[in-house]
Amino acid sequence: MFRHAGPASLSAEGHLPGFDGATGWLNSAPLTAADLRGKVLLVDFWTYTCINWLRTLAHIRGWAEKYRDRGLVVVGVHTPEFPFEQDVDNVREAAKDMRVGYPIALDSEYAVWRAFANQYWPAVYIADAQGQIRHHQFGEGQYEECERVIQQLLREAGHEGIGDDLVPVAAEGFEAQADWTNLGSPETYLGYEQAQNFASPDGAAFDEPRTYVAPDSLKLNHWALSGDWTIERGASVLNRADGRITFCFHARDVHLVMRPQAGTSVPFRVLVDGEPPGDAHGLDVDEQGRGTLVQPRLYQLIRERGSITDRTFEITFLAPGVEAYVFTFG
Questions:
Q1: What is the pLDDT of residues 144-177, one digit of tens each?
Q2: CA angle 17, 23, 25 (to 5 degrees)
Q3: Rounded CA separation 43/107 (Å)
Q4: Beta carbons of 323 and 237 less than 8 angstroms apart
Q5: Dihedrals phi, psi of 193, to nearest 5 degrees
Q6: Pairing mode, if any, of strands 253-260 and 322-329?
Q7: Contact 313, 270 (CB under 8 A)
Q8: What is the pLDDT of residues 48-105, one digit of tens each?
Q9: Which of 301, 283, 295 is nearest to 245 (CA)?
């Protein structure tokens, strides 16, 4: 995370690049420099499967609603990480489900990302009414600081009635803040380009089908496949039914980004330490560990209600055609 000088000493960080490279817009006609003249602008880079961004959304949404009629414009720049996030219908559906009602610039070709020289999801840039970037925040956190900047820049722009109170946030579900104290598992990709700690015996075969087995036990933050899989550059792809992914984790939440192939739906079953999760089930799983992969998105599979210890997670897919991209934790 980055620390900044207090709002009273904000300095200019350069002129806002704008959105000319956007491939489309949702919730708005294209916004031009003329449309934004005299407005304070918050630009939020996101991609809809990113848990780090999801945990910031309640704050972004709250600022957009509170200051919308007081001179603030919020623009979400959706720059996709995974191929299916380039699909406009997928982004539109995700935005609706997540209640993202402010303008969205679609950045499928990374042109806006490059114009900002951005490198992060999430990333926030706040510009004043003259179009000068005065503050940025990479990653989660520093919510009070960002809102104080918004308030100061609105006052500088001559808007009256800008108080010091902060947006109240009661984040739930995916948007709940991580249990940082007990978070001991990192983001873990399942494609060979970024994969680490793969523990199936004999290692991985790239871009070809192989039958894998899981070892009897796993070290913390190691993972394994069982069944007939193809490990591709960006994902592990299940070729036959009853394939399994096993992961030894230490966290409150377990999430997995997945996509069903060819519009199919795939039932799955989740176990923790060999048992159904019970009260520890996530949003997308019942107490017996049953769930269904339907949409290409992030799935919450576990949310521990009790003490956090090293646990072994298993997900078994009852049909083929699954692309599994990345585990994230909270």
A1: 999 999 999 999 999 988 999 999 998 899 999 9
A2: 85
A3: 13
A4: yes
A5: -65, -35
A6: antiparallel
A7: yes
A8: 999 999 999 999 999 999 999 999 999 999 999 999 999 999 999 999 999 999 999 9
A9: 301
The position carrying tokens 């114009």 is 115
Token pair 């999760």 is found at 277
Quote the CA–CA distance of 84 and 151 in Å, as a whole number: 37
pLDDT in tens, 184-198: 999 999 999 999 999
Model pTM greater than 0.90?
Answer: yes
Token pair belonging to 277: 């999760």
Query: Contact, 109 vs 21, CB < 8 A?
Result: yes
Residues in the chain: 330
The torsion angles phi and psi of 16, rounded to 5 degrees, stand at -60, 125
Distance of CA 319 to the CA centre of its chain: 26
